[in-house]
Amino acid sequence: MVKMKIKLLPQRITLKIALLYSAVFSFVLISLNASVLYTLKYYLIYQSMEQVSTQAEVIKAKLSEAKQNMDGALKDTAFSGIPDENIYVKIFDSKGRLLYLSKKLERVAIPYNTNLEVPVKVDEFDKDLVYLNTVFKKGDATFYIQVIKDMKNEYAFLKLLFILMFFADGAGIFISFVTGYFVTKRALRPVDYMIKEVKDIDAKGLNKRLKVYGEEDELTRLAKTFNDMLDRLEESFARQNRFVSDASHELRTPISVIKGYIDMLDRWGKDDREVLEEGIKAIKKETLEMESLVEKLLFLAKGDDRSIKLERESFDLKEIAEEVVREIKLIYEGKNVSLKGENVRINADKKLIKEVLRILLDNAAKYTSKNGNIEIEIGSGDEAYIKVKDDGIGIPEEDLPYIFERFYRVDKARSKDTGGTGLGLSIAKWIVEEHGGVIGVKSEVGKGTEFTVMLPLINDSK
After folding, report:
1. TM segments (predicted)?
2. 321 and 249 in one domain?
3. How many domains does the chain have?
C-alpha cells in the first residue's frame, strides 16, 4: 500500500513567511473590525434606548401641560413632534384598552405593563426593536405609555458597513500577502546567493568563503558563522590530510625495512645462520615499532571520537611518579633521574596520568646526554603540578608552538635514531586536557627543557 503525504504548507520559506504574515495581519484586521462593529452595534442600541426614553419624557411632559380633555390632548399634543419615522407610540388606559396608536407596527405585540421604566432590546417578530414602558398619571386617571423604536435603519447601516469591511479585509489580506511575499523574497535574496555559493564548495574547495556585506543583520551573522565553520573545517581537513600523510609515511618505513629483510632472508637466510638471525632480529624490532605506532594512532583516533572513557580514582601522584622513575632508570642506564616534592592526591585516570609521566620522562631521557640530569617535581597549590626538567639539547623557540602537534619533530634526522614518532606529546596533551588540566613547556637550546603539567586537585567524575 502506497502512503501519500499531504503537504499542508508550501516548501518555500518565502511563501511560508508571506502566509504567516498574512495570517497575523488577517487576525489583527478581522479582530479590529469585529471590535468596531461590536462597539458600534451597542452604541446604536444605547442611542436608541436614550431616544425612546427621551421621547417618553417628552410625551409625558406634553400630556401634563395639556388643559383640554385627554382625548384631545392625545391627538393634538402628544404626537405632534415625533422626530423619527421609525418610532411608534402606544397609550393604554389602566384596563389595557388601546387609547392611541401613532402608526401601526406590523406583527408586533409587546406587553405594555412589563419592564416598566426600563428600556429593553428585543429581537422578535423578525425585527430588532428597543422599547420603553412607562406610567403616566393625571388626576385619578392612569395611563401606560409604550414607545417602540424599530432599528432597521441602524441594522441596515451595520450590514452595509460589514459588507464594506469584508471586501476591505479581503483586499487588505491579499495586498498583505503579495507585499509580504515580495518583501520577504527581497530580504531573503542573500540566502539564494548563499545556497548557490555553498553548492560550489566541496572538500577540494574549502578555501572559498561567502561574501559578507550590508548591515549587521541575521543573514550577515549567518554568513559570518558559516565562514567561521568553513575556517574550522578547512583547518580540520588540513590536519587530517597531514595526519594521514604522516601516518602513511611512518608506516611505510618499517614496512619497507621488513620487506627488505624478508627478501634478504629469502635469498640468503635459508643457508646462512648469521643472516637469518640478523633478519629476524631486525624484523622483530621494526614490528614492535610499527605496533607501537599503530597503538598510538588508535589511541588518538579514539580520543578524537570521544570513545575513551576516563576511569577516575583517587591516588597519590608522587607514588605514580616513583614507579615511572624506576622504569626509566632501568631503560636508560646512566641517566641521573631525581624526584622531589610532596605527596599530592588527585582524582584521575591512574593509567593515563602514568602514561603522561612516561612520555615526558622518555622524551627527557632521549634528548639528554649519557650522564644527563632529569628532575621531576611534584607539588600543589590551587592545583596539582608535575614538572619535568632536563639539561638536554633544548628546543628552538620557533618550534615551541608546534611540538604538541601530531608527527611534529624538531630534529627529524635525530628522531629516527631515538625511535620517536612525534605522537607522544600529542597524546600527553590530550590526556591532560581531558582531565581539565593544562600542559606547558619552556626551553632554551643547549640548556634544556622544562615541561609543566597542571591538574585539578578535585574533579567530579565525567
Report:
1. 20-40, 160-184
2. no
3. 3
The answer to whether residue 235 sits within a structural domain is yes
CATH number of the domain that residue 262 is part of: 1.10.287.130
Q: From the CB of residue 285, how many other CB atoms can be counted at a distance below 10 Å?
A: 15
Are residues 383 and 287 both part of a single domain? no
Together in a domain, 236 and 315? no
pTM score of the predicted model: 0.52
Residues 24 and 162 in one domain: yes
As beta bridge partners, residue 49 has: none
Residues 168 and 249 in one domain: no
pLDDT in tens, 28-37: 888 998 999 9
Q: How far is CA 373 from the centre of its chain?
A: 55
Tell me which of 239, 272, 303 is where a domain ends.
Answer: 303
The confidence score (pLDDT) of residue 204 equals 60
Among 16-30, 243-257, 401-415, the range with the most confident prediction by mean pLDDT is: 16-30
Are 444 and 369 contained in the same domain?
yes
Q: Residue 258 sits in which domain range?
A: 226-303
**Mean predicted lDDT score pLDDT of the chain:** 81
Find cell 436614550 and name the residue: 50
Residue 128: count of CB within 10 angstroms of its CB: 20
**CA dist., res. 425 & res. 407, Å (int):** 9
Average confidence (pLDDT) over 322-349: 89
52 in Cβ contact with 130 (< 8 Å): yes
For residues 419 and 363, the answer to whether their CB atoms sit within 8 Å is no
121: nearest Cα among 35, 38, 41? 41
Higher pLDDT, 134 or 196: 134
Task: Give the residues across from 336 on adjacent strands.
Answer: 373
The CATH number of whichever domain residue 350 belongs to comes to 3.30.565.10
Distance from CA of residue 45 to its chain's centroid?
A: 53
Instruction: Compute how many other C-beta atoms are within 10 angstroms of the C-beta atom of residue 107.
Output: 9
Residue 154 domain flag: yes
pLDDT digits (tens, 9 = 90+) for 104-137: 777 778 888 888 888 998 887 778 899 999 998 8
Asked if 131 and 110 touch (Cβ cutoff 8 Å), the reply is yes
Does one domain contain both 31 and 128?
A: yes
Report how far residue 276's alpha carbon sits from residue 279's, in angstroms, rounded to the nearest whole number.
Answer: 5
| 324: Cβ contacts below 8 Å, ≥ 6 apart | 354, 357, 358, 361
Residue 83 resides in a domain: yes
> What digits encode the pLDDT tens for the residues 152-173?
888 899 999 999 999 988 898 8
Residue 380 near residue 433, CB atoms below 8 Å: no
Which residues is 304 bridged to in the sheet?
A: none
